[in-house]
Write a structure and sequence with these properties.
Helix content: 25-40%
Number of domains: 2
Largest sheet: 3 strands, antiparallel
Order of helices and strands: HHEEE
Strand content: 5-15%
Number of strands: 3
Number of helices: 2
Oligomer: single chain
Radius of gyration: 31 Å
Distance between the termini: 77 Å
Length: 89
Amino acid sequence: MSIVESLKRLFDPATQRREEGEQEAARELPEDGEDGDPPGFDVPVAVRHDERRLHRCRICDHEADRAGFCPVCLADTMIAVEPARRGPR
């Protein structure tokens, strides 16, 4: 208990009791937290089937819907292909 609270209790007990009641009521209320995912947790954005980006291997030109490793070369060589550049090179 601080000196200020002690002086409030001594000189103005009604105000002190009211403030203590407000503080106790605030402590008993549940915190209004944010709904949603915890911070730092990335949620993948749903992509419609027609909006999927096509990826092509830089080495063997294999095309797939997924980025990352080429299933033919077994290397991390997949790059996104623009819609106008789809098809054979």
